[in-house]
Design goal:
Strand order of the largest sheet: 3-4-2-1-12-11
CATH architecture: 4-Layer Sandwich
CATH superfamily: Endonuclease/exonuclease/phosphatase
Number of domains: 1
Radius of gyration: 17 Å
Shape: globular
Helix content: 10-25%
CATH topology: Deoxyribonuclease I, Chain A
Number of helices: 6
Largest sheet: 6 strands, mixed
């Protein structure tokens, strides 16, 4: 079976392209970051990505779970309008599956779900962050998937918050001794101390498969000079068949597709 991990970008009007791409790849499990769920019909169309994607692929993915990070109707910086949604929206992570959920939770590990209006200091303070933890029933076999969008640091080298974040992810993942896949946009470079903590416990497939970038060409000139920030980790109960990063400019991140089996 296949799992896709992808940050689809809140900044781009690309939901229909995202939906069609997922449909073309047809993975059994899809884990997305920066998905937007709208509450008001007045919300600008580009901020209705959850609805637009599901309209294209919902019949192929009867099971879905959305985990919101925050809610707002606008971003303001220094009391000036920075981004207007024209109504209330939530941004979060979403897992869609062809297999049923046994259980699913959305756990905030940094700040709490709240009305996020003032974004003046977000580069130093960041916003709320959460991890989705789901258990799937795959034809009688258990599969745990964790999906997150990690704490943002400008240099992508992390700090004490990201170390705490990764320790939390490990502790949650080890709560069940079952086949486990951890995915997401971690906002961290491969050689950071934070990612190193996960490397000690899990196979880092992005490093193992020598992935050079998880960003499209139009994002090559990042301030860090290194374009790997998205990852897939697995435990020993997952048999890895292949991993590929698909070159597309639909989003400002590239989709990663894992081909795997659940070990007996």
């Amino acid at each position: 079976m296949k799992l896709m991990c992808w940050n689809i970008s809140i900044k781009l009007d690309n939901a229909k392209q995202v939906g069609e791409f997922i449909k073309s790849q047809n993975p059994e499990v899809v884990a997305l970051q920066e998905v937007v769920r709208h509450f008001d019909d007045s919300v600008f169309q580009m901020y209705k990505s959850k609805q637009d994607i599901e309209q294209i692929i919902k019949k192929n993915y009867p099971y879905s779970f959305f985990g919101p990070l925050w809610i707002t109707d606008a971003f303001r910086k220094n009391s000036k309008m920075h981004r207007n949604f024209n109504g209330f929206v939530e941004q979060g992570n979403e897992i869609m599956s062809k297999f049923p959920f046994v259980e699913a939770t959305n756990e905030h590990f940094y700040k709490i779900y709240s009305y996020a209006l003032d974004w003046t200091n977000w580069e130093t303070e960041d916003h709320a962050r959460a991890v989705q933890i789901v258990e799937l029933n795959v034809n009688g076999k258990k599969l745990q998937v964790l999906n997150l969008h990690g704490i943002w640091t400008k240099d992508k080298k992390g700090d004490s918050r990201t170390i705490k974040e990764c320790k939390y992810i490990i502790s949650v993942a080890e709560g069940k001794q079952i086949p486990t896949i951890i995915v997401g946009d971690f906002n961290l470079l491969p050689d950071t101390k934070s990612i190193g903590l996960l490397n000690k416990k899990y196979r880092n497939l992005v490093t193992e498969f020598n992935v050079k970038t998880t960003r499209p060409k139009f994002k090559d000139n990042l301030e860090t000079g290194n374009n790997v920030v998205d990852y897939i980790f697995v435990n020993s109960k997952i048999k890895v068949n292949d991993l590929k990063v698909v070159d597309t400019d639909i989003s400002d991140h590239l989709p990663i597709i894992l081909d795997f089996d659940i070990k007996k």
